Amino acid sequence: MPTPLEQWVEEVARLTKPERIAWCDGSAREQEEIVNQMLRAGDTLRLNPQTYPNGLLHRSNPNDVARTEAVTFICTREESDAGPTNHWMSPPEAKRKVGALFAGAMAGRTMYVIPYLMGPADSPISKIGVEVTDSAYVVASMRVMSRMGKAAQERLGGSADFVPGLHSLGDLDPTRRYILHFPEEKLIWSFGSGYGGNALLGKKCFALRIASWMAREQGWMAEHMLILGLEDPSGKVTYMAAAFPSACGKTNLAMMVSALEAQGYRVWTVGDDIAWMRVAADGYLHAINPEAGFFGVAPGTGATTNPHVMVALRRNSIFTNVALTPQQEPWWEGIDSEPPAGLIDWKGQPWTPGKGPAAQPNSRYTVPAYQAPSISPHWEDPAGVPISAFIFGGRRARVAPLVYESFHWQHGVFVGATIASETTAATTGAVGVTRRDPMAMLPFCGYNMADYFRHWLELGARIPHAPKIFHVNWFRKGADGKFLWPGFGENVRVLKWILERVEGRGRAAETPIGYVPTPDALTLDGLNISRSTIEELLRVDSADWTNELQETARFFEPFGPRLPEELLEEHAGLARRLERVATAKK
Ligand code: OXD
Ligand code: MN
């Protein structure tokens, strides 16, 4: 009697007609074969074995370098269950249309079957997925990003409890590219792209879109959040989870070298992109990182912005669409060295100044998490780590102060639901446009976001020790257009204030938007920053926020009556508080 997995694999083989089927066990021998396959295909090179042992450089098709939200669909029976922020296709139409593309798509190719585990091997919070793919690059990347092969296969046994994901590169024609999610049957179909966020199905497709649906059904949370531990001078570690839109520095924050290390404050990394969280018996929300690696944006990463990752990616790492030096080492803008003579750009062409960036702006490194010097000793703790604070943030040149704390959970959900950010290169489309990105989940919520807000509100009421909710903005600019805050390792000063607020200390002033630190509440010693800059960073401008209120109302409109009443209450509350301040000033 075939197992449910064997039956599904047979079914997709009948559809896609591969030349051979390879079941991945995650062994070293298999890895060698996969790498050889990639080298033979000509789109992958070995990096300098002395300085980057086991390092690979992969060059993707230039039309396939970022997530493609316009062709990412949630396929629910009812369109309203996908909601106004998702693209929707009916399941029968999706199966017909994209099924026709999958038909025979793997002819002449190997079909790899990758059983994988999202989360630590012994954690009850972990889940199993199986990706079937015709891309060797996907196999090599899944090996870094998940616990794949034997461990997952053994945990699955003959059970049907896995999320199937079918992936084919097809012919990489962007007009035949579809990233489909069927949350009602917990199924993923991805066709026509090899880009990480579209093709490594454990990541955005399973761990966020399908998992967010499961989390609502089963009473837990799947969030686009990094997880870090802040150690204080007594050695106590307080865990925080933070949501920022793509390419806003989550990886750098999670792996930060603290500017306050001499004072005993140190940051430990648990995860850099996704958190799965459940209420535990101790009354805290406990988080695991479902992933096993980091898939980070390379440009802008260097010894000053993220020294820990620069150490980590020296071995066993895959680089995608970065430039290559004559020493066969990876190079990108912001790596702390000038472009060397003889640089080869991400398309494999000789690079010369004036030719544009040598590395694609969304080029990536894929590195095993355990290699990070900052990795937390608890990163694979089956029970997860208890979360004391949620931090929302975005990239905002104006409006949002450096940090503020919400008044209570419901207000915090409003703060998360209304975050906005200037867009980056992580997805196709215009860069630098401000868009609302609730909880940084806009591209990743697998269902109607109004219901997602409801889930947040309801779950909060069930967490005896609910995390306090904060908002940060490292990107505020002054009148001269320059960033006011130095960012990176200095951000620990903000985390320290958050820790103090969690512990019921930390000075703050009440403003219409929440509690903002008083200028003397932040630990600023050793930092060359003027009092007026700090005041500007912490300023809450009533006119800006009144405008923000209008934009928020416009953003809420399409959700109609499905939007929880509580968010409208919070909106009205903010309006009232701004009004009161305006009246007092007159
Ligand atoms: C990512 C993203 O790659 O959010 O993590 O786009
Ligand atoms: Mn992300």
Structural class: alpha/beta
> Average pLDDT value?
96
Q: Give the C-alpha Rg.
A: 23 Å
How many beta-strand runs?
29
SS strand fraction: 15-25%
Number of continuous helical runs: 16
Bound small molecules, which ones?
oxalic acid, manganese (II) ion
Sequence stretches where pLDDT stays below 50 over 5 or more residues? none
What fraction, in percent, of the residue positions are helical? 25-40%
**How far from one another are the termini?**
80 Å
* Approximate shape: globular
Reported for the largest beta sheet, the result is: 9 strands, mixed
Describe this entry's structure for a reader.
With 586 residues, the protein is an alpha/beta fold. 29% of the residues lie in helices and 22% in strands. It has 16 helices and 29 strands. Strands 1, 4, 5, 6, 7, 8, 9, 10 and 11 form a 9-stranded mixed beta sheet that branches. Helix 2 (28-41) crosses helix 5, helix 11 (409-417) crosses helix 16 and helix 15 (542-556) packs antiparallel against helix 16 (565-585). It is globular. The model has no long low-confidence stretch (mean pLDDT 96). Bound molecules: oxalic acid and manganese (II) ion. Oxalic acid binds next to loops. Manganese (II) ion binds next to loops.
